[in-house]
Sequence to fold (386 residues):
Amino acid sequence: MDLSSIINELGEDRSLYFNTVAPPIAQASNFAFDKVADMEKVFADEMSGYVYSRGRNPTIDILRKKLAALDGAEDCLVLNSGAAAIFAGVLPFVSSGDHIVSVKEPYSWARKLFDLILPRFGITTTYVDGGTIDSWKNATQENTKFYYLESPNSWNYAIQPIEEVATFAKSRGIVTMIDNSYCTPLYQPVIGMGIDLAMQTATKYIGGHSDTLGGVLTGSHKLIKKIFDTEFLAIGSGLQPFNAWLLLRGLRTLPLRLQRVEASTQTVLAFLKQHPRVKNLLFPFDPTFPQHELARKQMKAALGLITIELDVPDRESVVRFCEALKHILMAVSWGGHESLVIPKCAGIPATDFDVSNPEHRWVRLYVGLEEPDYLINDLKQAFDAI
Fold:
């Protein structure tokens, strides 16, 4: 289906709501029935109709249809955050005694799920580098039921061979899930590569305005319904109608924003590569990136995140650089209109800082929608402040 058709038309029947160009917000908790038989039908299968907005809601359904189509998937669920999507996406497919293989150092709340919550129910996780298919094969056990990928991740942009992993997993009856927040389905169509469940944090590029959270799961109708009928309804972590409306608004400009971010990132990257205070940098489409060839094979583009290793003698220099920025904000996340930085050392106790460890001198930059020269001038004066 054409991208413009998905974003502007799919799921929208304007004749049902006064021909408004923007869909209305169905700000309702529950829905009325004329016939007992109709209520009975939806009680038997809550995914078949509207009964309570914890399950389905008209505004959210428009968003679901669009997001499923963008991924080339049969169905979609939208949750209150990316962390909620990870939780609801993993839990239905593992039971006590099962085993998970995950990329090492996944998103922090995925790691907490694997390390703190699931072990209480007898579910174990093995972490792998994930850069080769052999690392997945070697970690797989007889009781392995789930693979968790994150490609690229959001700090060192480690990449996994998606098609190879998906093919092997299918041969063993293992469910695969990937965090595709970095690329979005526009730049990495993971469902088409054989992945069972694609996850995104809609908080980032889909929302695009840093004013709402959201998490997306797409996949086959069978898998999505399994999630809906179990963890999704039981936990009650589905998205709210107003937040769905904000994400629909964000979708309208998603392709244009991604194009702008991609172009501006290249300009900022060129500046950073020649600056003497940048000892090293990580960016998937830079020729120096260790997995450059795999990145080019799997991804249509690399977007706004760049990790720089500052050439500085101490933690205080990293702090001075970040705090000297006047226009680039220091904050978590990415994908909004505003450019951001986050220093790795903010998550490391000052007493544990090791200047000889390159990661301790990392600063992650997100290039937003500002003019590239505006960002470069801000970076220049912050480098000078060191």
